[in-house]
Specification:
single chain; Quinone Oxidoreductase, Chain A, domain 1; 2 domains; 7-stranded mixed beta sheet; globular
Length: 348
C-alpha cells in the first residue's frame, strides 16, 4: 500500500510503498478515507536529530478518518463497515485521567511506549492504518470524512481550550483568536456556537481575515505591531476575556498578553519553531490573568464535536489533495499558503 513517510532527519515527506498492516489482538484495521495535515507534522520534521524522538521511518498523519474493514482477535464494540474518525492522543486506558476520557494527559503513555498515530505510531497518511483499540474510534454516520476529519485535532484542540473558559464568556465578553487557519477558523465557529462572546480575529493576510469574517468573526484585525492597540480600542480599553493564540510565536504571544483583560484566560495553542514564552509577573500583565498551554482534548469532547457536526454547526474549509500530492501539501503548509485545513484522500 502507499503511505506518506518522514524517512530521514531534515528530509521531506515521501510517498512510498509499504506492507499493508494487519490488526493484532484488540486492534482495528481501517481503510483510510481522509487524513488531515497539521502544523505539528511540520514542527516535528523540523526538529534536529538530538531532539527527534518519533522513530524513523514515520508514517505521518494524526488526523484520520476511515471505514472499519477488519477486527483483530478480541476487538469489540465496533462493526466492520462503520465510518469513523480516530481519537489521536492514545493513553493507557486505565489510569485516573484515562478513566475520565482524558487520554491526552495520560501520565503513563511515555513509560509504556504508547504513541499517537503519526506522532510515533504509524499514522493515517496511508491507504490503511491500525488503531490500537475500538475506544479510539468515533462513528460519524453519513458525515463527509473530508469535512469531518479536521475535527479530530483542528477542532478538538480549540474545543477543549474554549470549554474550560466558557464561564468567562458571558454577555458583553470578548474572545480574541490569533491565527485563523486550520484551528483558528474552527475556534471562531466553536466560540459562536457555545458563547455570546464578541469574537475578534487576528491574522497576517487579508485572505485569512476574509475567511475569519466568513465563518463568524465579529471584527478582524491585521496581526502586526499595532494589533494590540486596535483590539484595546475595539474593547474600549478593557481587553479580552479569552485570548487563543494558534501561532505560538513570540510576537503573537506578546500580543496575546497585551490584550488580556483582568481575570482573563490566555491559552497558547500554537507551537513555534523558535523558542517563545509568555512573560508573567507583577506589572507584566493584567491582574489574575491565567496563562495555559493545553494539549489536544478528551475522548468525550470529540464525541461532542461529531454531534455538533451532525447539527450542521461547522463550515470546515479544506483543500483536498491526492496521496501523490501530499508532499506538495506539506510545502504549502510550511509556506503558509493553505486556506483552512489540508486533507489527503488516499482514493484519489
Amino acid at each position: 500500500m502507499r503511505a506518506v513517510q518522514y524517512r530521514t532527519i531534515g528530509g521531506k515527506p515521501e510517498v512510498v510503498e509499504v506492507e499493508k498492516p494487519a490488526p493484532g489482538p484488540g486492534q482495528v484495521l481501517l481503510e483510510v478515507t481522509a487524513a488531515g495535515i497539521c502544523h505539528s507534522d511540520d514542527f516535528i520534521m523540523g526538529l534536529p536529530e538530538d531532539q527527534y524522538v518519533y522513530g524513523l521511518p514515520l508514517t505521518l498523519g494524526h488526523e484520520g478518518a476511515g471505514r472499519v474493514v477488519e477486527l483483530g482477535p478480541g476487538a469489540e464494540g465496533i462493526e466492520v463497515g462503520t465510518n469513523v474518525v480516530v481519537y489521536g492522543p492514545w493513553g493507557c486506558g486505565t489510569c485516573h485521567l484515562c478513566a475520565q476520557g482524558k487520554e491526552n494527559y495520560c501520565p503513563r503513555a511515555g513509560e509504556l511506549g504508547i504513541n499517537p498515530p503519526g506522532l510515533g505510531a504509524p499514522g493515517a497518511l496511508a491507504e490503511y492504518m491500525v488503531v490500537d483499540s475500538p475506544r479510539h474510534l468515533v462513528p460519524i454516520g453519513d458525515l463527509d470524512p473530508v469535512k469531518t476529519v479536521p475535527l479530530t485535532d483542528a477542532g478538538l484542540t480549540p474545543y477543549h481550550a474554549i470549554k474550560r473558559s466558557l464561564p468567562k464568556l458571558r454577555a458583553g465578553s470578548t474572545a480574541v483568536v490569533i491565527g485563523t487557519g486550520g484551528l483558528g477558523h474552527l475556534a471562531i465557529q466553536i466560540l459562536r456556537a457555545l458563547s455570546p462572546a464578541r469574537v475578534i480575529a487576528l491574522d497576517v493576510t487579508d485572505e485569512k481575515l476574509e475567511l475569519a469574517t466568513k465563518v463568524g468573526a465579529h471584527d478582524v484585525v491585521l496581526s502586526d505591531a499595532a494589533a494590540a492597540g486596535k483590539v484595546r480600542g475595539l474593547t474600549r480599553g478593557r481587553g479580552a476575556d479569552l485570548v487563543l493564540d494558534f501561532v505560538g510565536a513570540q510576537p503573537t504571544i506578546d500580543t496575546a498578553m497585551a490584550v488580556a483583560a483582568v481575570e482573563s484566560d490566555v491559552t497558547i495553542v500554537g507551537i513555534s519553531s523558535k523558542p517563545a514564552a509568555a512573560q508573567v509577573g507583577f506589572f507584566r500583565q493584567a491582574y489574575e490573568t491565567s496563562v495555559t498551554v493545553p494539549y489536544w482534548g478528551a475522548r468525550g469532547e470529540l464525541i461532542e464535536l461529531v454531534e455538533l457536526a451532525h447539527q450542521g454547526v461547522f463550515d470546515v474549509h479544506t483543500e483536498t489533495f491526492a496521496m501523490a500530492d501530499a508532499p506538495k501539501a506539506y510545502e504549502r503548509l510550511h509556506e503558509g499558503t493553505l486556506t483552512g485545513r489540508a486533507v489527503v484522500v488516499p482514493s484519489l
